[in-house]
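Need tokens for this chain, all 192 residues.
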Amino acid sequence: MTRRRALLVAAAVLVSVVAIIIGWQLGQSRKGAEEIIEVDVPELEVADGPTFTIDLFFPGPGGNLYREEREVPVQEDLLLQLNRILQELVAGPTTEDLFPALPPEITPGWMHLNQAGVLYVDLQFTGERSFPAWGSRHEMLAAFSVVNSLVAAAPEIQSVVLLRNGQQQPTFAGHLDTTRPLLANSQLIASP
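Here are the structure tokens for all 192 residues:
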């Protein structure tokens, strides 16, 4: 290993450790907070009829993604089903220690699945013109919450391209390259 490569690896490890420590400290500061913050969660329609279980991935302790199972109505169209999964992600987790993956200003837009298994997902930002000022780990958790949840839902999906208001952006918060299709990232998922 060259000296330059060793320095790059050491810098990457240092940045990761700092991000984990900051995330842990933010989690600790939330535990001691006495202020109650009310959040409006969009209500999801509950349909009569057959349902199936989906896996959603939400950020949680240690800067990892955690699996949360949900029962959702079966949709006749795959893209409608995937849209429902995005709605569930925006609604946020039901498990106490987990955090919402996406800001509440985001709503699911259009989707397209091509023959190569690349799913194009348009995330509509209805509020801020720019993505929240997140660190690299937070941005990765948000993006791969979406990607992992969608890929887990349908074997036809090989990768996901995340769009913002109909346009492909080079990044959402300045850290993750979104100019290419993203594969599911199992390394971010906490082991049970």
